[in-house]
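Write out structure tokens for Sulfate exporter family transporter.
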Amino acid sequence: MGVKASSNLTIPTGAATSHRRSALLPGIVLCLGVTGIAIAIQAWEERATGHPYIEALVIAILFGIAIRTVWMPGERFRAGIAFSAKQLLELAVTLMGASVSLGAIVASGPALLTGIVGTVLLAIVSSYAICRGLGLPARMAILVACGNAICGNSAIAAVAPVIGADSKDVAGSIAFTAVLGVLMVLGLPLFIPLVGLSDHQYGVLAGLTVYAVPQVLAATVPVGLLSTQVGTLVKLVRVLMLGPVVIAFSLIAHRLPLEDGVRKASTGRLGFTKLVPWFILGFLGLASLRSLGLIPEAASGPVRQLAGFLTIMSMAALGLGVDVRVLARMGGRVTLAVTGSLAVLLAISLLLIRALGIS
């Protein structure tokens, strides 16, 4: 059986697979190059100071952004960059499950789990109110609110078809999420000395506020193992809120206000992988095996190292996809809405940490 390329040409399946691999190669090599430089810089830091003050994860993001700012990767690089930023990122998150015990979730207690759910719901409501107060359309306000409250681009992509959002609203929301997601990774550790957070408290804060699971790793790995484990688990509970939220918006989409005199119908179907992404299931599956003792420590170590390398590579790809100049092209109201929503989420998260007495 072949793959039809045109009305007069049929490419054998094997050739099509080879062509796809060739299309991915330039972008993957570029991401590998950025990753190698980031790892080398971290190694130099360790030799010079005994401690990597800026982890390779963060260096990869910064270097990727720097490259993207002065040079736009051509068409031949884009497929590989997109593959590294999405598929490799998801694989890295899945593999992280091999080093995490689900017992930590139980140890967190029902109070924290309830607090995470409450934080997500309160953040969505308050963010939506801020966006609408600044004059953003209802659907874009929902996208911004869900992106900030749950998991950034993934939440935006899942909610957009359900509420019938315009492509320009989706693009604008995702653009700001990409930029602010990087800024959160770089700036969140400043809260440790400013607010006097312990490693445990910082892990909860990162899990409640940082957009994507791999970005939680980037924000917590430099702080310590406890912050990384707590942050990842809190973030996973937060991501699992995506399913109920998408279902809720699908039920109220027809009640959203008119835009340009037209009521937009919701599109798309609620597939299971939209409600719970496959990599979250993979993470939980490996974490369950690890918790049951079916993944020995001797195996979890190499898997953790591979996950770390793939995460750095994914961060390099994400950096290569961030154009900081997008902020200059977007309106001031959108800037205020997104940053204001994020500030509210930070405030709610800090209040939750204090209210629950997390030490």
